Amino acid sequence: MPHPAPNPLTAAERAWAHRELNPVWARQWALAELDLPVRGVVLAYLDWRTGAYDAASAQIVAALSELTEPDVWRSRALNIQAGLLMVRLDFGAAHALYTEQLAVAQGCGNQLELAHAKHDLALSLLDLDSARAVPLLHESLTLFEQCSASEQAGVAHLNLGMVYQRRGHVGEAEQHYALAVKRGQDGYAVLHILALAQLVVLHVQQGQLAAAQLHFGQLDQLPQSQDIEAEVERARASVLLTQELSRVRWAQNRGEGGWQDSAREQQDVLQTLDPATLALAMIGQANARHAQRLAELEASLAQAEAQHAAAERRSITDLLTGLHNRQHLMTEGELRLVAGTTCAPAQAAMIDVDRFKRVNDTHGHATGDVVLRDIAALLKAHALPGDLVARYGGEEFVLVRSVGQPSLVPTLEAFRLAVQDHAWTTRPVTVSIGLTLVPGDPLDAALDRADQLMYAAKRAGGNRLRHDLPRDSTSSGPQLNLMYGSERDSVH
User: Fold this and answer.
1) Whether the predicted pLDDT of 488 surpasses 80
2) Distance between CA 259 and CA 277 in Å, rounded?
3) Is the pTM of this model over 0.90?
4) Structural domain ending residue among the three candidates 285, 312, 339
5) Helix (H, G, I), strand (E, B) or coil at 288
6) 174 catalytic residue (yes or no)
């Protein structure tokens, strides 16, 4: 008995849960789910965290237009859009979206989404109403812990640490940072980097250079992340520590006193250089390290973008012919045809290789594949740059031309003759073509009509074009005021 197909929403929840632990897998899932609106939420989150803000914004706006129900996915989408507004420093608009997210989360009764909403609303209030923000952060932390959301609880600890550090409550800040580090060690790399970076900064500001160096040693061993914020905070911690070590050593050599660094090995190294050389060397080393990290991050982002683009191309491409595949045709073709009207129709053609089974039976499937590739190349060569050319399946192809473009009749006639006159290594190959006007009706209906015209061409002997365009519309000029006409053959 066959197993039922997995519920796509279950897979979507897995992708969402793995967006930090396994972002590559989450992106691969999202790219494969072309018709699921929640894919846009997952992609928007991944693009946001890697600094691809334009792509993230486009994805989330499109997702929100479809996710109109007040459920967990709309809550997540609102959260991402608000986070993007925070990046743009549009705190007022972000606060409004976080407030809306809170209402959605409360309405759908999801405790984890409610915790997210309270946490991020608190962050938007830190500079506007800190008295309200801190209790919200504590409430969100409690909810995260009740939901066993280890990473999110760690993020709440991290943000509470920053709030207490800003208020001068060093002990509370260090305690929350340490708890965030502990949660980050469970495999949440971004959280681990951010928490250690904040500990380094806190200890530098307190003059505790030995502790700062200890934490920075741990931070420096962590692999690079594609998260922009995490790498910026790592670089900031490195700069602050390097500059402070330089300053302290300079002051000591000048007899101005200063803190006594308990790290004896570091002191031995410092003693070998004069202060000016030490300062320049350490700052130069820090700059080189940061430049290397930024270069690696840029290279990693470029590679991720290239892989993303390649995956998208693969998902819409027919592997044999290199044309668009049927899945892309059904999505993009619908968009191309919807603008058609009776006075300004779009056009759709169905193309079928005549007696193709004989080619396979006589010469083998490998030769048949060569024929299909050659047909595809000829069709692509005769199409206009804006045409949608796709392999529909087997030996069938489709060409869609949008509103306002020239008649397809001359294009298809030239293509038909090119196939007829091509230097085939097999028996001669020809094609039958059905072409129809599309005054805004659905793609399925248009293809069915073109298919019927194509089979009429086959019944008439093949190697011909049959269309329903009026006689005055078959020139190469722009299509204007086209009306349905009777079926006509075009054949030589």
Assistant:
1) no
2) 20
3) no
4) 312
5) helix
6) no
